[in-house]
Amino acid sequence: MGRLIAHRLLATIPVLLLVTAGVFALLHLTPGDPIDAMMAESVDATAKDALRRELGLDRPIPVQYAAWMGRLLRGDLGRSIRNGEPVIENVSRRIRPSLELALLAMAISLTIAFPVAIASAVHHNTGVDRLGTTFALFGICMPNFLLALLLIFLFGVTLRWLPISGYVDPLEEGWAGVRSLVLPAVTLGLALAAVVTRTLRSSLLDALAEDYVRTARAKGLAESHVIRRHVLKNALIPVVTVLGLQLGTLIGGAVITEYVFALPGVGRLVVDAVFARDYPLVQGVILLIAVGFIASNLLVDVLYGWIDPRIRLR
Fold first, then answer.
1. Distance between CA atoms of 175 and 12, rounded to whole angstroms?
2. Domains of the chain (ranges, CATH numbers)
3. 78 near 85, Cβ under 8 Å?
4. What does the pLDDT look like over 14-71, one tens digit per residue?
5. CA neighbor of 203 nearest in space, from 232, 163, 162
6. Rounded distance, CA 208 to CA 187, Å?
7. What spatial distance separates the first Cα and last Cα of the chain, rounded to whole Å?
8. How far apart are CA 304 and CA 39, in angstroms?
9. Neighbours of 172 (CB within 10 A)
10. What is the tens place of the pLDDT at every residue in 94-114?
11. What is the pTM assigned to this prediction?
């Protein structure tokens, strides 16, 4: 397992280099100038040129990239062009809401997906299965922004059970903080639950057709024991893959959901930075999102080894 993890970590180095180079190039090739975005049109061109030289934006793109990589190797992600604060401080203020939202959405999705998928697979081609399949299809087809608006109208405007926007830290305010995250977490969790339900149902149906399941049933084991001890664990690998990818996406920031519910997360931060042409901030956030994806995929690899010990030997 240690060799597998080391191999995965070494493989991430070229991935990070490609991500940083690609994002850097795309940002600088996109029309627009951060200095023009910061200053009014009436500001003298000489002042703009002076600020551009001060920030190093007048140098060739390869030189700017080399300078940024040099700072990155020293652990410095640079400073935001808009407010002059270090990028890491900007991100650290926004990462907690996104992380809390991601974990709550993941918990909601697993709570819904596993019972629905197991019931659909066990009662294959029955009314229960059709209901589960309909739920999965509905969750996949429903756009996040539309589901968010429907939830706001029902639970926020009509019933007045939950706040419709804003963020309160659950670690500081407790239940009030959890209530502020319920609607956005349900919005993301239902979509993820639909994907996990379809994946787990298909994997369970394949596992239920295996010979070892028929043998377990022939031994007289209870159906719940067969599902829990023999079928479910062997059906988890595709689900773990999906969850790893989705966790990286959720931590990176669900942009539309954060905008609809006015959450101060990483998704809103990177979009605002793109509109402001804040190059250091966009590059820093994208790099941290890439690291989040790599960490989630590494966790998936470790879980593979726990689910199927044969993978540890590869």
1. 39
2. 94-313 (1.10.3720.10)
3. no
4. 887 888 888 888 777 777 667 766 666 666 677 777 877 777 777 888 888 888 888 8
5. 232
6. 32
7. 9
8. 52
9. 8
10. 888 888 888 899 899 999 999
11. 0.80
C-alpha neighbours within 13 Å on the C-beta side of residue 204: 24
- The C-alpha atoms of residue 139 and residue 108 are separated, in whole angstroms, by 13
Tokens representing residue 175 in the block? 């239940």
Backbone angles phi, psi at 167, to 5 degrees: -140, 135
3-state secondary structure the chain: CHHHHHHHHHHHHHHHHHHHHHHHHHHHHCCCCHHHHHCCCCCCHHHHHHHHHHCCCCCCHHHHHHHHHHHHHCCCCCECCCCCCEHHHHHHHHHHHHHHHHHHHHHHHHHHHHHHHHHHHHCCCCHHHHHHHHHHHHHHHCCHHHHHHHHHHHHHHHCCCCCCCCCCCHHHHCHHHHHHHHHHHHHHHHHHHHHHHHHHHHHHHHHHCCHHHHHHHHCCCCHHHHHHHHHHHHCHHHHHHHHHHHHHHHHHCCHHHHHHCCCCCHHHHHHHHHHCCCHHHHHHHHHHHHHHHHHHHHHHHHHHHHHCHHHHHC
Q: Which residue matches tokens 């993890």? A: 5
Quote the CA–CA distance of 56 and 68 in Å, as a whole number.
10
